[in-house]
């Protein structure tokens, strides 16, 4: 018998990363709908694209197939687990040390202002234990780390949009200190910030 062959499993969704990003948003793994659509946060009940617009992180509400357009707003996308798809509430893809190191290395290479996990599950998986929502004490280099509430429709019971608004305010404040352009909150929309 021959030696076992190591096969490289392709990423379910390719990273959307480059230099000079304000934010990298990181999920646990592509959901099954997103994997099928080959687009981030593609399930129709997912609030991801709505909250990006409502908080002013994007000036318009993009659709999942427009995910590459986030780069023009200096927002990148990735997932902890790249080679498998699954939902946080179901059997989660297994996070390996290699997955964690891949993310850390990507953040060290691209040096965004913020890394934000788009669910408590993703943040807790990365850190290896229980964590609260909001900004974390740890950093990767100069990159600030946040854990945001999941935008998945399956997580509606724990939806806390105020954490997303607080995060967007920090991003805008940080960008102001770096003297780069930002999108004003609620630009081009009549939605109100939740109280």
Task: Describe what this molecule looks like in 3D.
- The chain is α/β, with parallel strands linked by helices and 195 residues long.
- Helix content is 27%, strand content 18%.
- The chain is built from 5 helices and 5 strands.
- The protein is globular and about 40 Å long.
CATH-level-4 superfamily name: Uracil-DNA glycosylase-like domain
Question: Globular, elongated, flat, extended or rod-shaped: what is the shape?
Answer: globular
> What is the CATH class?
Alpha Beta
Please report the number of helical segments.
5
The side-by-side strand order for the widest beta sheet comes to: 2-1-3-5-4
Assigned CATH architecture: 3-Layer(aba) Sandwich
Largest sheet: 5 strands, mixed
Summarize the topology.
Blueprint: E1 23-30, H1 32-37, H2 48-54, E2 75-85, H3 97-110, E3 114-117, H4 120-127, E4 134-140, E5 143-147, H5 161-178
Parallel strand pairs: 1-2, 1-3, 3-5
Antiparallel strand pairs: 4-5
Summarize the structure.
With 195 residues, this protein is of the alpha/beta class.
Key descriptive features of the protein:
disordered C terminus; 27% helix; 5 strands; globular; alpha/beta; 195 residues; 5 helices
